[in-house]
Amino acid sequence: MATRQFSEDDLLAYVRGAARPDLSDRIEAAMAAEPALKAEIALMRGLGPALRGEDAGPDATAFGWRRLEAAIRREPSGRADAAAPRRMAMWRAAAALLAVVGLGQAVYIAAQWTGGEAPAYRTASEPAARHVLGVGFAPDATAAAIAELLTSVEARIVDGPGAIGLYRLGFASAEARDAARARLEASPLIDLVADE
Amino acid sequence: MIEGADDPRDAELLARVAGGDVAAMRALYLAHAEPVRRFVRSRLRDESEAADIVHETMLSVWRGAAGFQGRSSVRSWIFSLARNKTVDHVRKQARVSLGEPDETTPGDDPNADDVIAAAQDARRVRECVGKLSANHRAVVHLAFFEELSYPEVAAIEGIPEGTVKTRVFHAKKLLMRCLSRLGG
Questions:
Q1: Which segments constitute the RNA polymerase sigma-70 region domain (chain B) (predicted)?
Q2: What pLDDT score was predicted for residue B104?
Q3: In-domain check, residue A96
Q4: Cβ contact (<8 Å) for B66 and A81?
Q5: At A167, is the secondary structure helix, strand, or coil?
Q6: More confident of the two residues A79 and A17
Q7: Nearest Cα to B164, choosing from B184, B141, B180, B131?
Q8: How does pLDDT run across A143-172, given as a tens digit for each residue?
Q9: Which residues contact A62 (CB under 8 A, 6 or more apart)?
């Protein structure tokens, strides 16, 4: 490093093969005359290959991914901070839509009954329609995990998914619904819990 | 908004991550976790602590993907996150000052032939790099292993470009002296 006739940018460009031909020629001429510059270039060329030998290995990377995957699956609502408001707006719209659909269905069923005839059919949601919650499941929630969760809160799916993926959960009583709400809201399997 | 990213695939993956795509996050992790780990290790000698910082960095990528403004490449952004977390970690541990002054160790000129011979020996080069300060190791790693430009290194390290070049200059000087001793 006896000479500084070349800048750090010049030397880096040369080592990376990105120097202009005239600059390359000047550096090579200088290297022939100056062992210190030749040594400096040799060092710069040797650093990359040397540091490449420090890989942790595929096992460490695979383990690291499993650890990260577990963490991000625990916090589905934490992703994409800037998108969260948009997503919440979508879910609110979904909840509103669900409420409208539910109201329409109730009106339809009431109309059938007030007609003095036995209903031609009973919708699956009808028995549970008085104690329901709307929920959106996390995209990565498995069927088995969902089934286990619903069993634990004594809920069952009575309708859905709607056009935007919202389900209605039916409960035996208002108390059961209210008791389940907090557990559903805390579950990583659930993106949203909405009242109807 | 993904603008100004160097690698179109990285930008595409990050956009998908912003939408909550776990598969895209996995691809991004597999592409960058190991380089980030090596970078963190260039500043931090403990492997398990480095693994924790890689984890925290990539978790921040997952959480903050939608907020990426595209003012740098995706890779530079990830390295910046890692650098900041490393600095925070070290400050909390209060074991090393990342603001330590650059070493200036005047001494005999190294023997060029010894340096040229030793520079071919990866083990010797790593041994000498390991003796550098954290600041010097970081710029050497980013410039010569990650092959980032000096402006990119400056952005990641949060220092002026001129300081990067000064650190590179001094790091090379120290490495040549170290290699000269080992090669002699």
A1: 28-95
A2: 42
A3: yes
A4: yes
A5: strand
A6: A17
A7: B141
A8: 777 778 888 888 888 776 554 556 778 888
A9: none
For A41-81, the DSSP string reads HHHHHHHHHHHHTT---HHHHHHHHHHHHHHHHH-GGGS-G
How many distinct structural domains can be found in chain A?
2
Please tell me whether residues A117 and A48 are part of one structural domain: no
Q: Do B141 and A51 touch (CB under 8 A)?
A: yes
CB contact under 8 A, A61 and B30: yes
Rounded to a whole number of angstroms, the distance from the CA of B96 to the nearest CA of chain A is 22
Please tell me the distance in Å from B92's CA to the nearest CA on chain A.
Answer: 23
Query: For residue B27, which residues of chain A lie inside 8 Å, CB to CB?
Result: none
Structural domain boundaries, residue A17: 8-52
Confidence of residue A56 (pLDDT cuts 50, 70, 90): low
Measured in angstroms, the CA of A23 and the nearest CA of chain B are apart by: 18
Across the interface, whether the CB atoms of A61 and B34 are under 8 A apart is answered yes
- Supply the angle between the helices A58-74 and B47-64 in degrees, to the nearest 10: 40
**Domains along chain B?**
8-93 (1.10.1740.10), 112-183 (1.10.10.10)
Residue A114 or B82, more confident: B82
Name the residue of chain A whose CA is nearest to B178's CA. Answer: A43
Q: Contact B144/A67, CB-based, under 8 Å?
A: no
Query: Tell me, what amino acid is at A40?
Result: E
CA dihedral angle for residue B113, residue A12, residue B174, residue B109, rounded to 10 degrees: 40
Tell me the per-residue pLDDT of B46-93, one tens digit each, with 9 for 90 and over: 888 888 999 999 999 999 998 888 888 999 999 999 999 998 888 877
Cα B125 from chain centroid?
Answer: 17
In terms of residues, how long is chain B?
184
In this structure, which amino acid lies at residue B85?
A: K
